[in-house]
């Protein structure tokens, strides 16, 4: 006849229970890790139909309008997303719009103070010149606007186009890296 030792049953039961606990704890850690990783991909704030005013030294300077704004502050590189486009307007001292920027989508990288505008980007400077491209970057820290994409600049009496572009942040002093098309040149007297 086979005899079962009381200690061997207890040992087997303890081993089985410990195995279930280890597996259960391992699953919990996996869920926590997945939740933390998912948090980096989820916005901490989502807002719809937003218009905000930005002032400088108590003077209203800019108006930003968007139909959707998402803030991803837990991402490895925190950013604000404007997936349905953005309109930015600058006001002069009499509160009339003197410059404007629009795009189908925009991203603001908050730690770098870098804007990326994409899709049907249109900007108008203080001189009334219209800038059109598919992608435009605005580096606020270095007061620089640039693009490596095709750009079209419509001035009062001519249109200039090319690939690659760099400007000051007011879009008043700019360089086209690879000009294309016919460019009128004034003859020397």
Descriptive report:
- The protein is an alpha+beta fold.
- The chain folds into two domains: 1-40; 45-180, lipopolysaccharide transport protein A fold (Sandwich).
- It contains one helix and eleven strands, in the order H-E-E-E-E-E-E-E-E-E-E-E.
- The chain has one helix spanning 6-40, and strands at 45-56, 59-72, 79-82, 86-91, 97-103, 105-109, 114-124, 130-139, 144-154, 159-168, 174-180.
- Strands 2-3-6-7-5-4 form a six-stranded antiparallel beta barrel.
- It is globular and about 65 Å long.
- The termini are far apart.
- Mean pLDDT is 82; it is low at 4-8.
Summarize the structure.
The protein has 1 helix and 11 strands, in the order αβββββββββββ. β4 and β5 form a beta hairpin.
List the helices and strands and how they pair.
Elements: H1 6-40, E1 45-56, E2 59-72, E3 79-82, E4 86-91, E5 97-103, E6 105-109, E7 114-124, E8 130-139, E9 144-154, E10 159-168, E11 174-180
Relevant terms:
alpha+beta, 6-stranded antiparallel beta barrel, lipopolysaccharide transport protein A fold, globular, about 20% helix, about 190 residues
CATH topology of the largest domain: lipopolysaccharide transport protein A fold
Mean pLDDT: 82
**Major sheet strand order:** 2-3-6-7-5-4
Major sheet characteristics: 6 strands, antiparallel, barrel
DSSP, total strands: 11
Please write the string of helix (H) and strand (E) elements.
Answer: HEEEEEEEEEEE
Within CATH, the superfamily of the largest domain carries the name Lipopolysaccharide (LPS) transport protein A like domain
- Structural class estimated from helices and strands: alpha+beta
Strand content: over 45%
Q: At the first level of CATH, what is the class of the largest domain?
A: Mainly Beta
Query: Into which percent range does the helicity of residues fall?
Result: 10-25%
Give the oligomeric state of the chains in this entry, treating copies of one chain as homo and distinct chains as hetero: single chain
């Amino acid at each position: 006849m086979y005899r079962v030792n009381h200690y061997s049953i207890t040992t087997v039961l303890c081993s089985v229970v410990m195995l279930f606990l280890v597996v259960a704890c391992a699953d919990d850690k996996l869920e926590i890790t997945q939740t933390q990783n998912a948090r980096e991909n989820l916005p901490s704030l989502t807002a719809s139909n937003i218009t905000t005013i930005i002032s400088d030294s108590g003077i209203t300077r800019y108006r930003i309008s968007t139909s959707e704004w998402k803030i991803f502050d837990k991402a490895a590189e925190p950013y604000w997303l404007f997936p349905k486009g953005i309109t930015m307007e600058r006001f002069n001292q009499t509160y009339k719009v003197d410059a404007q920027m629009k795009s189908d989508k925009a991203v603001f990288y908050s730690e770098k103070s870098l804007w990326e505008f994409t899709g049907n980007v249109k900007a108008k400077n203080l001189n009334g010149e219209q800038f059109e491209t598919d992608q435009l970057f605005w580096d606020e820290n270095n007061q620089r606007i640039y693009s490596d994409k095709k750009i079209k600049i419509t001035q009062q009496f001519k249109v200039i186009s090319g690939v690659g572009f760099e400007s000051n942040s007011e879009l008043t002093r700019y360089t086209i890296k690879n000009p294309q098309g016919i460019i009128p040149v004034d003859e020397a007297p």
